[in-house]
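Job type: complex structure
Entries:
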Amino acid sequence: EEQLVQSGAEVKKSGESLRISCEASGFSFANYFIGWVRQVPGEGLEWMGVIYLGDSDTRYSPSFQGHITISGDKSISTAYLQWNSLKASDTAMYYCARHPIGGHAFWYFDLWGRGTQVAVSS
Amino acid sequence: EIVLTQSPGTLSLSPGARATLSCRASQTVSANYLAWYQQKPGQAPRLLIYGASSRATGIPDRFSGSGSGTDFTLTINRLEPEDFAVYYCQQYDTSLRTFGQGTKVEIK
């Protein structure tokens, strides 16, 4: 079964660092980009960025660039989302999702992880 | 940035009814690079439609997508109890891919 397995919930304080993970299971990372999507409690979805682990090609939303780092380790089929200094406003559910490699026609997310809840207290 | 505006915010319907959800883009979405997702409480989103009108694997045929340019529609025929959820559109025409704010389909 194809799955994206995300790491568990986190409780942090403002200013702390954090890295959450997303591991591919049942399919080859080589054929997909992995993206991250934020959902603040009670609100909608926000596209944060994507990475292709084959060559570490990474794209960020301007809304998040400079505050997050998306990375990965292709040897263990795992993508990461990292903060060096969390803010209370980072409290949200974070989903990873995949889209196939290729051109624009394939940039939709066809498989999602279950999400990692991040709570940041001030 | 392409801004997607979904309407209505909430749709109150009875099981068996037809739901019509709208997604309007602030500029043309080339080649219909638009997807629809369903999200139920406590769950991750699920892909329903891509390319504006192609159903994803395993999606029932009561879900259909249409539209082009700046106006897109998701239609759900004969609402089933499991269809009551929040629906999001997403454009993937530009490098900055954006979502609409969502439409909640609730039981009347």
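Summary: The mean pLDDT of chain A is 95. Chain A is about 0% helix and 50% strand.
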